[in-house]
Write a structure and sequence with these properties.
- With 323 residues, this protein is of the alpha/beta class.
- It has 2 domains: 2-185, NAD(P)-binding Rossmann-like Domain (Rossmann fold), CATH 3.40.50.720; 194-314, N-(1-d-carboxylethyl)-l-norvaline Dehydrogenase, domain 2, CATH 1.10.1040.10.
- It has 13 helices and 10 strands.
- The protein has helices spanning 41-52, 72-78, 91-102, 122-130, 147-150, 160-165, 167-173, 189-217, 224-230, 240-251, 267-277, 283-295, 301-314; strands spanning 2-5, 13-16, 28-29, 33-37, 56-60, 84-87, 110-113, 135-142, 153-157, 181-185.
- A 7-stranded mixed beta sheet has the order 5-4-6-7-8-9-10, sandwiched between helices. Strands 2-1-3 form a 3-stranded antiparallel beta sheet, covered by helices on one side.
- A hairpin with a 7-residue loop joins β1 and β2.
- The longest helix is centred in the middle third of the chain and has 29 residues, at 189-217.
- It is elongated and about 65 Å long.
- InterPro entries: 6-PGluconate_DH-like_C_sf, 6DGDH_YqeC, 6PGD_dom2, 6PGDH_C, 6PGDH_NADP-bd, NAD(P)-bd_dom_sf, Pgluconate_DH.
- It comes from Plantactinospora siamensis.
- Residues 1-23 are annotated as: Disordered.
Amino acid sequence: MVRWCRGTGTSSCRSGSPAERGPASFWEEQDMQLGLIGLGRMGGNMRERLRAAGHEVVGYDRDPKVSDVANLAELAEKLTAPRAVWVMVPAAVTDATIDELAGVLGEGDIIIDGGNSKFSDDGPRGERLAERGIGYVDAGVSGGVWGRQNGYALMVGGSEEHVGRLMPIFEALKPEGEFGFVHAGPVGAGHYAKMVHNGIEYGLMQAYAEGFELLSKSELVTNVPATIKSWREGSVVKSWLLDLLDRALDQDPGLTALRAYAEDTGEGRWTVDEAIRLAVPMNVIAGALFARFASREVDSPALKAVAALRQQFGGHAVTPADG
């Protein structure tokens, strides 16, 4: 299965075998070059998934052991204009990285921010880049440490022209099949959608975690891990998060190796801020966020489950019980 495109709009692309594409002069297979900045847990796996799909990826990281180039200037030199560069760094250094990158790119190039930036930063950032003739696309990326194998759910914001030009990259990163990608709207929409996605994730994790705690304290249920495992098929609560909780319990049935301390990346807070701004009742997500705050004061089984889930899907650091 490959992607064939004509023009730059997302509606001008389709997937299929070479025999299905029609006349060669009408549809053209698109392999792309991409610069990728930040080769950590997700960025490094994204590089490998893109390369496996036939795209050329030039990666830069501050760690020379994983970097393909020594600096951003060399990265820009290795790409053929018009260039596309994906930034996958922590939110705290995203603006500085993009500003430095803009200094070595030129008119017609595109920068994609795939980190956990706040959506309200995207509009001003896009305007600054537009003054240089550089396009900007924001991409919410979900998939954690499993994305290389399973694909990444992508929520993208930007113009139709810029998103369409990048579709071969998005197609290679997303899971196979119909789902896993959305052009959510203009610049900022991708990170907004990812913010809401993460807020929902908070609520789902908290529900599983509270169920785990109740089972653990029950006088009747004597095999909690097996009970969780039984829900993985035939149950309306089956999900990938439940699978990961089962995996964590296989590794540590009582989660005794963990301290019930769950961090938050900020997106849950932003989601609740938006709920307040738009007067949307968001009891579950707000409660899940506050439970994480409470985890920093008490050591509960439920918050151990939340900490274990964050480690399982995202490789996030956990606090050992003896820490």
